[in-house]
Amino acid sequence: MPSETRLPRLVYILGWISLFMDLSTEAMHSILPAFMVGVLGLSASEMGLVQGLGELTATLLQRLSGQLSDRWKNRRDLILLGYSLSALSKPLFACATGLGGLLFAQMSDRTGKGLRGAPRNAMLAAHVPAAQRGAAFGLRQGMDTVGALLGPVLMMLMLTQHLSVRLALGLCVIPALLCVLLIRVALPADPRPSPTVAPARPAAVASSPAFRRLLLITAGLSLARFSESFLILDLHDQGLALAHLPWLMVVMNGVYALLALPAGRLSDRWPRQRVLAASVLVLLCTELLLATSSSRAVLWLAAALWGVHLALSQGVLQALIADHSPAGQQGRAFGRYALVQGGALLLGNLALGELIDHAGWSLAMFSAALWAALTLLLIQRSSHLMQAPT
């Protein structure tokens, strides 16, 4: 079958690049919620503000970088600039002393993400045959998640060696710099083939009913899927030691990494919208479980189910975006997708933080589950639009 043939070399290069950067980022994120609340004294809503504004910054810039990558001949320059900025921002987290410093560090890091995300996904979409897109995006997501799995392990090793939290955060710059080095020595300078057809008009990206429906589904899913930092914070509130908090990310990302490529290959054989619907159903059940109990055992189970949801949704949704992007406009398409996703994540994290602070954990989880149910209904009613174009 076409989906079983070897993927292009570019997919593996981008996968290794993602692995090193996520190793750095997730090592930090595995203790960052506890650092923000326990060391810097931020509230849950302030934590949601930091993360939400950071993601919004990234997505606004992905819209711009996506447009630029469609106009420029070489996407590598934007990818290199984005990863370099994220790498240089890592030590800023260790130096933060309050909300302002943390916001600056987060927005610097997410600016780098914004510059690289859409060009990287557009590069992947342009080089991989449609019959392999699920596997290609699944492999890149899987390798990204291996880095996310190893990051918390690295953080636990540093903390068990009695390094200070700030020093451990600062050392996370090392794998990020390795990522930048890999881009410089391995990523082709001009990997895009010459177009054989005239590029589509920019307006063509927004004119597709299927693409508009995909953006609506993305918004609903992003509102429903809150940051896993809230799970980490709840575990910390229940008394789990700081050095053990990264285990939650290990569980979640271990499941995610194992299932990302199989889920992508599955979406190359079955209608992708069915795989996406299954992911939302898993998310809905997880949030209902969290709404009825927040015991430690439930939180660990939720982390594993979160990994299942991510494996079934992230690469598959990106493959759907690629399927319904006009030729020559993949950068714009992924930029719009990222903008919608980031805006919804900002609103979702802010709302969840406020609900947790003022209405309690259970009501917040029921609210997230409601958005998941509405998104599942939307996917079911959009199946006729989601067929891969021939």
Q: What features would you describe in this structure?
A:
The chain is mainly alpha-helical. Helix content is 79%, strand content 0%. The protein has one domain (7-188, 205-381): Up-down Bundle (Growth Hormone, Chain: A). It contains 16 helices and no strands. Helix 4 (76-95) packs antiparallel against helix 7.
Briefly say what this structure is.
With 390 residues, the protein is an all-alpha fold.
Proportion of helical residues = over 70%
Task: Determine the strand fraction and express it as a percent band.
Answer: under 5%
**First CA to last CA: what distance?**
17 Å
Class by helix and strand content? mainly alpha
Unreliable stretches (pLDDT < 50, length at least 5) are: 191-198
Sheet having the most strands: none
The third-level CATH topology is Growth Hormone, Chain: A
- Rounded mean pLDDT is 81
Supply the CATH class: Mainly Alpha
| Strand element count | 0
Provide the CATH architecture. Up-down Bundle
Q: How are helices and strands ordered from N to C? A: HHHHHHHHHHHHHHHH
Blueprint (SSEs and pairs):
Elements: H1 9-29, H2 32-39, H3 44-71, H4 76-95, H5 99-127, H6 133-160, H7 165-171, H8 173-186, H9 203-207, H10 209-224, H11 229-237, H12 246-269, H13 272-292, H14 296-323, H15 330-358, H16 361-381
Helix pairs in contact: 1-6, 1-8, 2-11, 3-5, 3-15, 4-5, 4-7, 4-8, 5-14, 5-15, 6-12, 6-14, 10-15, 10-16, 12-13, 12-14, 13-14, 13-16, 15-16
